[in-house]
Amino acid sequence: MTAPILRRLADLRSKHAGWIRAGERVGVVPTMGALHAGHLSLVEAAKAACDRVIVTIFVNPKQFNSPEDLANYPRTEHEDARLLAPYGVDVIYVPDPEEIYPQGFASSVSVSGVSDVMEGACRPGHFDGVATVVAKLFLQTGAHQAFFGEKDYQQLMVVRRMARDLDIDIEVIGCPTVREVSGLALSSRNSRLSAGALRQAGRLHPILTRLAADLAAGGRFDALCAAAQAEIIAAGFDEVEYLSLCAAEDLQPLQVAESTARLFVAAWIEGVRLIDNIAVG
Ligand code: PAF
Fold it and tell me: Which of 68, 105, 163, 253 could serve as 101's disulfide partner, Cβ 3.0–4.6 Å?
């Protein structure tokens, strides 16, 4: 059965109040819609852990760096509701824009440190937009647990830091990246690629995996990075925006893999920017 779509905060709050009175645990899966199997895996994790599950769908203008990217972002509310139907979520919260950014909205949440590198350096203001909207969604949904994909690992770290720093009583849970058979990480952006570019993009993950193995075997990142970037270009990508080895918690750059190191990449293909990351070792 399709879950009710709520657009007003007051309606969400009255549902939430009933759940809390009944002593139920509430989970939230924040999304911008255009749902795919990666999102649905988060919904499954939320259903397994919580009594009630809210999926939020809000295309957040504050986290886009260009008006074209915002305009081109797929909006597929009907299809999203259809995909969610078999999962038995309790509410799909699709807030009216003024529920998130009311007239005169003047606040911003900024998380320094983990926001400053990689995506934060390439997309100024992006993580302020993410942290601001996610803080609002955490407070509006009053959820006990929130579920995010590790595909956006840096976002996961930013959101976790934000919730801790602002004393928002929510557990932020990271769930494994869901991949195509080729290894390509699922992303709403993949739908903008031609069949040929999708095939080429599928070569990114094996390249990362090989690099991770070389690093785990003791190789230095500065000695291996240029060859891996060249392989990504040879696979069909137009540009590698960054390829970085970082510590998993604070995202500080590393030259040698420590036990929790992760590799991160952002690369362009056919005008689409793809990101991915994997654990090393
Ligand atoms: O990952 C996303 O889809 C978005 O960045 C999020 C977390 C829903 C905030 O708008």
Answer: 105
